[in-house]
């Protein structure tokens, strides 16, 4: 069975590392980078230049999977082909698509042109370089950083930036950055329950971050954003750096006449994570619109991408052995949001569907533990 796994993110890499060399299974993992990116730690790379990548090749030892480095241009499910940027056409019997998501700028005027994103190591490096420049004594531009979107990514980023500017301004004797967190919704971190959210909000206020909830980002230029509060006049804020973390959508390089897509362009999959109209195609991770028990869309998180990848790896082995595939049963083991340095808030799942809420150092340890678990699962 000639199998292609597209993307070595949380989903694709989890699938590949669950495989074992088997005579009837020939697997190639196609990925644009020779490394896996710990996307959940990109905010640390952006603020502190932390190493957040791992070479893929050694992780595939003992799996029988070959790595092909290529940028995928198009996937055509009707022709059963994958075309790379270099013009190469790959064919498959079975396909696993885990190419992740891209930033959704929601067509806000000027935003795509003027805002940085935080989706790749290059994005993180670009932000890191700007922070360094903005802390030079001869820097003359605005030291305002505007981060749009107060979900997980936005909140984790502003808290790391706050810690970084504190350190650099003390060390170099220059003014600190003024950090604005702009959110159209009424609260930050809507995924968290009220108590934890309040605790996170207090930490942000302690850092001196300007929290503008209920403010819609209307427009961006090279050096400003315009925000519209729920009530009152729109206002323009000067910006040295604009970073948009306010939305994602699935990659749009998969074509198929019968393909069904849901919100944020996610591809509809069945209980075994296969595309109903193309049963030889699995879609996993941020690209997939998988459903939980009550028919609710599974969140786009690394935790769920990893679960889907591991299941799909095992299901590929079952396919080769002619066994029935196991369905996907999503489970949330907890959720932790880092708030800079050794601070975090979150909850972990206890038996009988109970949740244990935590904040401070212990939550930070739990957040780190989930990352170590991920590393251990692919090594
Ligand atoms: C800053 C930040 C913080 C986050 N924090 C958390 C968190 O704390 N907890 C959590 O659960 N989730 C978090 N997330 C979300 C999480 O990272 C994603 O849900 C997860 O990465 C999705 O996994 P995936 O495998 O679908 O995609 P990805 O991990 O994005 O992997 C996609 C892979 O496909 C490759 N690829 C893409 N396009 C192409 C192409 N055209 N050709 C070849 N290769 C390609 C990419 O290089 C990448 O390796 C965070 C995200 C960000 C950005």
UniProtKB/TrEMBL annotation:
<dbReference type="InterPro" id="IPR051169">
    <property type="entry name" value="NADH-Q_oxidoreductase"/>
</dbReference>
<dbReference type="Pfam" id="PF07992">
    <property type="entry name" value="Pyr_redox_2"/>
</dbReference>
<keyword id="KW-0274">FAD</keyword>
<dbReference type="InterPro" id="IPR036188">
    <property type="entry name" value="FAD/NAD-bd_sf"/>
</dbReference>
<protein>
    <submittedName>
        <fullName>NADH dehydrogenase</fullName>
        <ecNumber>1.6.99.3</ecNumber>
    </submittedName>
</protein>
<dbReference type="InterPro" id="IPR023753">
    <property type="entry name" value="FAD/NAD-binding_dom"/>
</dbReference>
<keyword id="KW-0560">Oxidoreductase</keyword>
<keyword id="KW-0285">Flavoprotein</keyword>
<dbReference type="GO" id="GO:0003955">
    <property type="term" value="F:NAD(P)H dehydrogenase (quinone) activity"/>
</dbReference>
<comment type="similarity">
    <text>Belongs to the NADH dehydrogenase family.</text>
</comment>
<feature type="domain" description="FAD/NAD(P)-binding">
    <location>
        <begin position="2"/>
        <end position="309"/>
    </location>
</feature>
<dbReference type="GO" id="GO:0019646">
    <property type="term" value="P:aerobic electron transport chain"/>
</dbReference>
């Amino acid at each position: 069975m000639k199998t292609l796994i597209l993307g070595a993110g949380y989903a694709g890499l989890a699938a590949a590392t669950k495989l074992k060399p088997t005579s009837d299974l020939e697997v190639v993992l196609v990925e644009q980078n020779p490394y896996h990116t710990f996307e959940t730690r990109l905010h640390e790379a952006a603020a502190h230049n932390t190493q957040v990548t791992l070479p893929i090749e050694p992780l595939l030892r003992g799996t029988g999977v070959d790595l092909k480095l290529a940028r995928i241009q198009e996937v055509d499910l009707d022709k059963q082909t994958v075309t790379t940027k270099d013009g190469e056409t790959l064919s498959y019997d079975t396909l696993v698509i885990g190419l992740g998501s891209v930033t959704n700028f929601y067509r806000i005027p000027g935003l795509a042109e003027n805002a940085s994103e935080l989706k790749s190591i290059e994005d993180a490096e670009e932000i890191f370089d700007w922070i360094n420049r903005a802390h030079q004594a001869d820097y003359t531009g605005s030291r305002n950083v505007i981060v749009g979107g107060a979900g997980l990514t936005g909140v984790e980023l502003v808290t790391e930036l706050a810690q970084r500017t504190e350190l650099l301004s003390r060390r170099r004797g220059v003014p600190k950055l003024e950090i604005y967190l702009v959110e159209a919704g009424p609260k930050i971190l809507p995924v968290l329950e009220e108590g934890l959210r309040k605790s996170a909000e207090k930490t942000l206020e302690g850092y001196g971050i300007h929290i503008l909830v209920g403010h819609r980002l209307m427009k961006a230029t090279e050096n400003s954003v315009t925000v519209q509060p729920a009530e009152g006049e729109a206002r323009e804020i000067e910006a040295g750096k604009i970073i948009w973390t306010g939305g994602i959508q699935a990659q749009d390089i998969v074509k198929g006449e019968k393909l069904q897509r849901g919100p944020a362009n996610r591809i509809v999959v069945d209980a075994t994570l296969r595309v109903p109209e193309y049963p030889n195609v699995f879609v996993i991770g941020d690209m997939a619109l998988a459903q939980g028990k009550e028919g609710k869309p599974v969140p786009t998180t690394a935790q769920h991408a990893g679960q889907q990848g591991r299941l799909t790896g095992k299901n590929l082995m079952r396919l080769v052995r002619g066994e029935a595939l196991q369905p996907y049963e999503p489970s949330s083991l907890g959720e932790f949001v880092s708030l800079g340095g050794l601070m975090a808030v979150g909850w972990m799942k206890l038996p009988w569907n109970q949740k244990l809420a935590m904040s401070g150092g212990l939550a930070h340890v739990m957040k780190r533990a989930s990352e170590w678990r991920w590393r251990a699962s692919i090594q």
